[in-house]
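Risk register update: the risk of archive-format incompatibility is retired. Evidence:
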Amino acid sequence: MSQERPSPPPLTKGEVAKEYLTAYNAICALLWLSVFGRTVVILPITGVESVYEAAGDFTKWTQTVAILEILHSAFGTLLNTLAQQKWSLVRSPLPTTILQVASRIVLVWAVVDQFPAATSTSPFYSSMLIAWSATEVVRYSYFVLNLRGSVPAFMTWLRYNMFYVLYPIGITSEAVLVWKASEAAREPWRFVGWGVLGLYVPGSYVLYTYMIAQRRKIMKGKQAEKRNRAVTQ
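Archived output:
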């Protein structure tokens, strides 16, 4: 008579939270990889005029998924308590997360989606998608590997150095698109657009300096780890 195998122990609350975050980040990495692939494939074939048709709606809904990150940040303390450790996804300050996610939601829904004739065929729309998608593929992939407990050195380098180039490209592209939409809008929405554009200077400064501070913190930690390994060897 064969013995029944004991059933595996149920997942703890921390393990459930970890599996959820891993799945979320993996799905987001794949979604943004699709945005990147659609953009870079269409560009050399049919030009910037066809990028919106090929990737516009998909990008809009992919970016909308990021609203969940506001919830992750808002409930970050709870998730960290359940998991008994800190994870990069829920460690981001809530104001910074809201600023970053909200600005992109405005871009895809209130700017490009409402004024496609003025924005969708601009080369700045394509450069925005490339900057966004390249950044997000690396960011979400980094989170997945971090949750699994093993991040290759090259991935850490990409995560905390690519923004030096991609962020200025992305923020410049966004500002140009907001300007184009504002010029196409009727009053008083035109003035609203100009007001949003005025917020880009302080907003971009906050996000850029935050990323620089994060890079400095992570790079110092990596250097300390190398020194400790050298001492123990």
